[in-house]
Structures are given as structure tokens and as C-alpha cells.
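Please think about what follows:
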Amino acid sequence: MTPLILLVGFLGSGKTTFLRRLLPELRARGIDPHVIINDYRNARVDAELLREYADSIVPISGSCVCCGSRDELLGILENFGHSPNRAVVIETNGTTDSAELITLLSLDPVLARFTQPIQLSVIDGQRWQKRFWHNSLELAQTRTANFLFISRWNDLHAMRRENVAESLARHGLHCEIVAPDGFAEKIAEFLVSVRDEPTREAVPRAAECGHHHGHGASHGAHHFASLQIDLPPTVARAALAAFLDGLPPEVIRVKGLARLSDSPDEFHVFQRVEDGATQWLPVGPSPRMDHPVAVLIGPEIEPGPILDRAAGLFSRSAVRGL
């Protein structure tokens, strides 16, 4: 499989600067990086600045790849030439909904030869949570991250460093802080472990998390921003709703596709955002993806208890007709 890396951060946080430092580190480790840059106006300009660091750089100018430019992004990824030692890095624009983008990339069936998304967020240490009404977006972009890079850290005085560290802890952001060379090393190690895996389906579901929890997982050290769970061919709506209601707070968002026992002639897309109500949307008998699945977004998810609970709950629903 090919590593799929998301570089996320608010406007002006330092994503392109980080990318300029990351790409040579990847190449020094024998990795061939392919870059996709999304920006409202400057995608082509930034692409030119990076030409010396990667052989393939594709700009997407316009709206976010999580919404308006999503078809263009999926088309680029669908036609990607997979081969050993390649990795794709997507630099998103500053207003991207990272949870929505991870959901899109995790669910689309044409991307099965890519790993689940690995997210690194870049934050500006000087301006972190000083963006007034944009603080919530900056925080949301960081909550889905597996890794974190704090730009301008060396320019911060001691008190500001303490304030940033306290803020990260207060918001429950425990993702690993890395520098470009350290992140490149982690990607290199990760690439070795997935090189012989043909598709996502070959990877044990319990492994799709940043921690090791057993369950026969052969890739327990992987850092993914989502956990994918296969659902039964048909599931009771009440059982699925109960499963969603019982998810831990580490699950930031969940979305999936299911065939419900009370409406077996069509599939439903379901979505739940943190503590909000579950939304059910019928999508007909033949959706693009016809494999029932749930994708849980959150880099600190403990997969073991969730998988055990899902197995027990859905098996009981089939027996009892819940």
C-alpha cells in the first residue's frame, strides 16, 4: 500500500515551510514523495517553489478538497501510479475540515490501495488559539491529528511555550510532536511494514490506530487518524444506533454505510458528530460503495473495546431481531 499523508493547519501556520523541510528528508530515506497542494489562489505558486524537492507536484486551486474540490482530488488519487517506496502528501488549505476529509478518504472504495490517512497538523506557536472566532476551526484541525509540528517554537519565550503546552493538554491533544526529520523517519518505518499489503482490506481492522491493542493485529504501531469497522450485511437500526450512542468521547466523528433490517431494499449513509443526533440518509439499492462499514474519526481511539462491543451487539441484534 501507499502511505496517504495529510498536512493540515490554519492559514499561515507554516505548512509549506514544513513541507519544504520534509520532502528532502523523505527522499534521503529512499521515499519517492508525490505532492498534492490545495489552496484558494496560490497552489500553483507553491507548487513551483517545491519543484526541486519532488518529481510530482499537482496543484488544486479553488475550494477545499474536503468539499468543492473533492472530485478533482479523488480523480488524482484514483489515477495514481502505485509502486514500492512511493508516498502521497496532501497539503490542505487553511480552512479544511480535516475530519470531513479523513472521512472522505477512508470511505471511498477507489482508494483501497492507499493506507488510512495519517495526519500531521502544523500550528503556529505564536498565534495558537489567538485567532478569535477562528479558534474553533484551528482546534478542530488539530484534534484529528496523529502528529503535531509547532512552527516558530524556537522564537517563543519560555512563558509562551508553557502556555502552548498547557493549552494542548487542556484540550486533550496528546498527539506526538515531531520535527520534519523525525516524521520522515516514522513514515519510512511505516512504509516498510505496509509495502507488501495489497489493499486496506488486508490490514487487520484492530490495527488501524496509533497504538497496539492485540486482537491479532500485525501492524499495531501504525498511526492512523481513523478506525474502520466492517458491519454485517444487514443490521438493525436500533443496534447500530445503540453502538453509535455508546462510542467513547475520543471518537470525534463517525460516518458509514449500512443496510438496515427495517429497510432492506436500500442502503443508508449514517453520520454522527460527537454528541449530536444520528442522521440517516437513504442512498438507494446500488451505491458506489456497497460494503457496509463504519469509519470512526479520532487518532486516540482504543479499537479493542469498540470492536468487541460491536461484535457482541450486532450478533445479538441478528439473533433477537432488535
About this structure: The chain has two domains: 4-194, 226-320.
